[in-house]
Please model this.
Amino acid sequence: MVSCTKSDQEPQVSNVSFSPCQQTKAATNELQDRVDVAFTGEGVKITYNKFEVTCDFNKVDVTHSFVNGVLRITQQGTPNEAKCICYTDVSYTIKGISKNEVNVIFINGVQVYCYNGKIEVTDSIKDGTFSGIFTVTYFVEPPNSWVSSGSGRATVVLKNGRYTCTGNPNRLPAGGSGSFATNDDTIKFYDENEWTADFDWNLILNGMYFYKFDGKRLKLSKKTDYALYEYDLELEEGVEKKVGFVSFGANYHVINCQSTVTVFLDGEKIGALQKPVNAINDCREEGNLNRKISVGEHSYHVEIRGDCEPKDISGTFAVSENECIKIFIDYYQIFNYQPNIKEGIYSGTYIPIMSSIVVGREVTLELKNGRFVCKDFSEELPSANGAGTYSVKNDTIIFIDEWIRPAMPLYDAILIGKYNYVFDGKKLTLSNGRYIFDLELVDTGGCDQNVIVNATEYENAPDQVSIIGMKIEGNCLKIKFAASGCDGSTWIVKLLDGGITDAAVYPKQRTLKLSLDNKEICDAVITKEISFNIEDLQIPGANKVQLNVSGNTILYEY
Model:
């Protein structure tokens, strides 16, 4: 850092000039893109383009302080009373300040200049891998001096407008990754990660830095009122290292105990998980621990501590170039815990245990708000058809059937009474000694049900239902309809598509049927609204399709 020796004369502001009020807004919100700092024989000349003032201003007041190499400038248009805003171009000179005295300049609290006197800019920053030392220096008051707080190894990779910075467990530095952009002697990093609030976020490589690069050595510096953050790096020669990615996540919210999940990678602690997840979708997911690692073999160790029984999990994995390795710590499996059954639609088969004649019958089971509807797709004797209420206790589920059935021998309700269940969050198995149901939770994309594309079922399904209205939200088609019945709790409603597309018209069209299986013998008119996931109705090569639903039409754009 440059020593800060005061000039013989006290710095004075002179030659303040400004343009008339302009209504054109600044082209950029970045202050460093609108301020020019130039050192002359008189002192430091500031040119500030598009400075925001009120419409009644008739001058710009400039004050400053200069202590320990830090020049703090305050500028304001006066008077400052009108409610309307305009912009002016301001310039002025602060006399009696030479370049070798100034470390940093702030205007209205924002850093616009930084100089460290070590290397000069000779080249634009190159893409590549830069390794070196990160150092943070804090200003301590008292004794009113800059005190080095710590340093650590850092590697910064710049490539195609993207960057990554390694982080250390002590957060010196914390790391960071995202996009970046350069402008003259500044580089701005846009970090794309989520961080906890228990440390100085300036330890993350994020925001605007001044840089110096001589073709080999890269220095980054950022200064605030209380700290100086510096990266002293060198460009690594040779072939760029091949890397992959690893992400650690856990569903620690599913059991009733407080726990901390700490992860070690290749013998070094990389941190604790900050947010529970049900699955790992990619190696950038927030809340998980995500790392860029070299191609090859790696080891990991996970410690679970807290109110739960302590657990230790270790393993190894191999990662190839650009591969994403997902290591999910499943609390269901680790603690042998069975989650509560989720509401939703399940599909699968049921099997009579004592029969060798009927096996693997297709069935769907909907569980919602303490009620169930079961649909047996067998053409003969669909015994699993049923509807009513259900309740869950421990590892059992009790079904109370309310279905109205024909007075036929052997047409007994199957899904009735007590069943033992096993549920892993996705797969559901029901058994009572006579029947076994093997079911899986259907992903409906946030809608109540999925559309069914089946030509045979479309042709044979009843559609005696009155549609009141339809609307599309995202990929969900919401249909409001009415029919006679008791309360509608036993209705089986489906949206069926015959798989036929009329491509001869524009936009292309599909014909659907809202099917209602209604066994309720009452004369009340019941109104319901059900949403259907219609993603399967999208036509390749088109961005819209007209849906003709039981005589009603709506346009689906995607």
About this structure: DSSP finds two helices and 40 strands in the chain. The helical segments are 331-334, 455-460. Residues 455-460 form the longest helix (6 residues).
